[in-house]
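Design a sequence for this backbone.
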């Protein structure tokens, strides 16, 4: 067996052109597979981050019936007590109280429908919050508000303008106040961009008569998005919030959960197509390389090499080519995906001209996509390409081994 291995390895160098052609086909196949794997990994992380991003979180707590009616009086009371209990629950990384109150806002005479969003400014400025990355001087405070970028553009609102806000308080009274525009806000949340007026939680509580109350508590867990169901279940059994509704993001937004599933399925389909194309190229190259050697193989049969050893020899050559080609392709693929992950693929380049983001299902995807690879991503291509290489060489090798030596030499 050792001598057969030595001969098989030596044979790879006898026809440099043929060997390089086969190696190139195998390496390019593995490179293509890994490039697509890295891109799909990056897309999945980007989409999942947006799904569970600043607006939705991993889970949410509401008063019963609020999601159906969204009435101002259906608010979470005893807010501080409930927050303390929830934040002490295992697996809860953050619990953010929020107020969402529909209102009319007017800069001069004409009013526009808007959504006043009350936030715990300090906590929302941390990682994962709706105000993440916003400098301290640009955050809402007192009667200073941030206006969504699209609302500001449509209504002609500028920094320093005074806005009249009219809505309904939690006690049924008319809520109204004056706010000063302290900044224009662009976030990944399309609803806030389109109609949001963001103020501090305390300001929203005063305007809408919601002392120690909130519309929603948004939860972020210490685990991944896959743990959102168990997180919601644990929080739902906390005595202080048992009478409230606690649901994971997948139940709150089944459409978005569907997007995740479709994205995963799309990734599998793309990988399958790429792999089939790569396998076809490898198989074609290996078949050509094997058929080109029929005269040589016939000569080996004529000098006494047995059919079994001949097949073993050809399969070992294909196996060596496959392993070497996959190693080269994996190295190139790793370098390519690492480079793409470092510089990023700008999502703006995928949108229409003049747009710096892509909006989909109420979410805005901004910035760059960062492909990456997991160690396990190399395995399917590695195994598949090697199997294809061996099978592509095995058929012609068996066929040649069954020929008479003189017939094989004439072919």
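Sequence:
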């Amino acid at each position: 067996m050792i001598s057969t291995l030595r001969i098989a390895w030596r044979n790879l160098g006898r026809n440099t052109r043929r060997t390089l052609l086969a190696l190139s086909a195998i390496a390019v196949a593995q490179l293509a597979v890994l490039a697509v794997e890295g891109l799909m990994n990056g897309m999945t992380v980007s989409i999942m981050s947006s799904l569970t991003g600043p607006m939705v979180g991993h889970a949410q707590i509401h008063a019963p019936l609020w999601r159906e009616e969204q009435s101002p009086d259906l608010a979470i009371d005893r807010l501080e007590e409930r927050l303390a209990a929830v934040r002490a629950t295992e697996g809860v990384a953050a619990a953010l109280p929020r107020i969402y109150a529909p209102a009319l806002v007017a800069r001069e005479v004409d009013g526009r429908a808007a959504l006043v969003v009350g936030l715990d400014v300090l906590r929302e400025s941390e990682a994962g919050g709706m105000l993440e990355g916003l400098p301290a001087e640009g955050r809402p405070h007192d009667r200073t508000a941030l206006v969504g970028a699209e609302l500001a553009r449509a209504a002609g609102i500028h920094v320093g303008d005074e806005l009249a806000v009219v809505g309904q308080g939690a006690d049924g009274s008319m809520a109204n106040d004056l706010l000063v525009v302290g900044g224009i806000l662009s976030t990944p949340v399309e609803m806030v961009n389109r109609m949001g007026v963001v103020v501090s939680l305390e300001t929203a509580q005063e305007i809408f008569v919601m002392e120690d109350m909130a519309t929603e508590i948004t939860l972020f867990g210490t685990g991944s998005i896959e743990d959102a169901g168990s997180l919601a279940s644990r929080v739902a059994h906390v005595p202080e919030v048992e009478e409230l509704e606690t649901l994971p993001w997948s139940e709150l937004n089944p459409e978005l959960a569907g997007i995740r599933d479709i994205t995963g399925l799309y990734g599998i389909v793309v990988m399958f197509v790429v792999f089939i194309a790569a396998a076809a190229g490898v198989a074609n190259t290996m078949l050509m390389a094997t058929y080109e050697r029929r005269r040589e193989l016939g000569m080996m049969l004529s000098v006494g090499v047995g059919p079994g050893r001949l097949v073993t020899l050809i399969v070992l050559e294909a196996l060596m080519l496959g392993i070497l080609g996959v190693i080269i392709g994996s190295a190139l693929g790793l370098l390519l995906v690492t480079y793409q992950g470092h510089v990023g693929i700008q999502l703006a380049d995928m949108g229409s001209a003049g747009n710096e983001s892509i909006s989909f299902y109420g979410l805005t995807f901004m910035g760059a996509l960062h492909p990456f690879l997991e160690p396990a991503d190399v395995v399917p291509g590695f195994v598949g390409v090697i199997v294809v290489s061996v099978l592509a060489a095995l058929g012609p090798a068996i066929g040649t081994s069954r020929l008479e030596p003189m017939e094989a030499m004439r072919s």
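The longest strand covers residues 92-106.
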